[in-house]
Amino acid sequence: MSNEAKRLVVGTRGSALALVQAEMTEGLLREAFPDTEIVRKVIKTTGDRRTDVSLSEVAKVEGVFDKGVFIKELETALIDGEIDLAVHSLKDVPTVLEDTFEIVSVLERAPVADVLVTKQPGGLDALPQGATVATSSVRRQKMLQWLRPDLKVCDIRGNVPTRLEKLAASEEFDGILLAQAGLKRLGYDPEGKMSTDEGDVYGALIAPDKFLPAAGQGAVALEVRKGDESSAAYAKAICHEPTMTRIVAEREFLRLLDGGCHTPVGVSTELSGDTIKMNGIVFPEGDETGEPKMAEVTGDAGAPLVVARELFDSLK
Ligand SMILES: NCc1[nH]cc(CCC(=O)O)c1CC(=O)O
């Protein structure tokens, strides 16, 4: 990197969670590069603008490629040179990027479980027969109805704090499903009482061995223009390698299944020494209510793509 006045512009969405994740990124960058000015630019995405319809509708209505609804405008800002580095929740990033972009780094991952948040404490076991749970994720819908066929599901939109408020105020549904990572990063206790302006709600973890997370859940990804070696070097300097190994494996598995965010797929990984253990679950698509397919494989953590393919092959 040259010696002229150095400046790096970090682009982020404006949601409370996105801002926390941007702050984490900027903090690490400032520590590693005290001589570089780290600047933030907040960008509104299609997904932030269209909170009136379901997420799958947003992609269709707005003509945004698959699940890029939370990233498209950040990528445009990268291309226009308005920002040098885009910070994303990795879960929201499509498994296949346009050729112009590259995910070059990830921050240390937060816990990956899903959390059931309800109006009464007690978690899943305390939810009455026939209760309704709101979620916009097909994976969460399918997994929930597989564990509890009596439950009904409905759609919900909005950022994490908004969803908690909607739950506290709702007459229509009794619970929502959220990522432990997002709640934790926003300062909520995912295993206890959470206060909102509309009242208190209660979180309970769902064991991730029963309820597999989305690929990349809890990870923060840093994206640059392909070929922008300077920005890539900044990002790579703060990369958490064990997280990178895991998310490469998880995203490869999802890519092989050709899944976007609307594919009912769960995947989890665990590193121990030189090995990586992967668990996968795939639900039949559409309105079918068949049994899911599940598999577990263990392999060389140095070859995450190979292990992901083994998991994929064992589910075919
Ligand atoms: N599109 C929603 C989204 N994207 C990332 C997170 C949470 C943080 C994460 O899982 O990385 C959430 C909300 C949720 O699932 O509760």
From TrEMBL:
It is an enzyme of class 2 (transferase). It catalyses: 4 porphobilinogen + H2O = hydroxymethylbilane + 4 NH4(+). Binds 1 dipyrromethane group covalently. Residues 245-285 form the Porphobilinogen deaminase C-terminal domain. Monomer. Belongs to the HMBS family. This is Porphobilinogen deaminase. The gene is hemC.
